[in-house]
Amino acid sequence: MYDLLVVGAGPHGLSIASHAAAAGLGLRVLGRPMASWRDHMPAGMYVKSEP
Ligand SMILES: Cc1cc2nc3c(=O)[nH]c(=O)nc-3n(C[C@H](O)[C@H](O)[C@H](O)COP(=O)(O)OP(=O)(O)OC[C@H]3O[C@@H](n4cnc5c(N)ncnc54)[C@H](O)[C@@H]3O)c2cc1C
Fold it and tell me: Cys-Cys link to 33, which of 2, 3, 9, 17 (CB 3.0-4.6 A)?
């Protein structure tokens, strides 16, 4: 039994999962990590985030 199920392993899902794990929650992430960026973004485009 999990405390949290995260559907989607994009930047937000992985971030939520990371914080939840750090808080000691038992969780499961469904999906391939960064699939939308691997499969659906133009070649050479990278996700940029403000510091
Ligand atoms: C062309 C383009 C350029 C962008 N550039 C930037 C940028 O430089 N910086 C920035 O901050 N943002 C950028 N964005 C916005 C970007 O989409 C988001 O910042 C980020 O990818 C959103 O993360 P997310 O985890 O919410 O969604 P997504 O990245 O879309 O991840 C969601 C994941 O969930 C998966 N999923 C969906 N349904 C299910 C299911 N039922 N079961 C399992 N998996 C599922 C999908 O396959 C996907 O992998 C850009 C967007 C586009 C379209």
Answer: 9
Residues 6+ apart with CB under 8 A from 29: 6, 9, 13, 14, 17
Residue 26 one-letter amino acid: G
Tell me how far the alpha carbon of residue 37 lies from the centroid of ligand 1, in angstroms. Answer: 7
Interval 27-46: pLDDT, tens: 999 999 999 988 998 888 88
Distance CA 44, CA 40 (A): 12
The distance of Cα 37 from the centroid of its chain, to the nearest Å, equals: 11
Q: Output the pTM of the full model.
A: 0.90
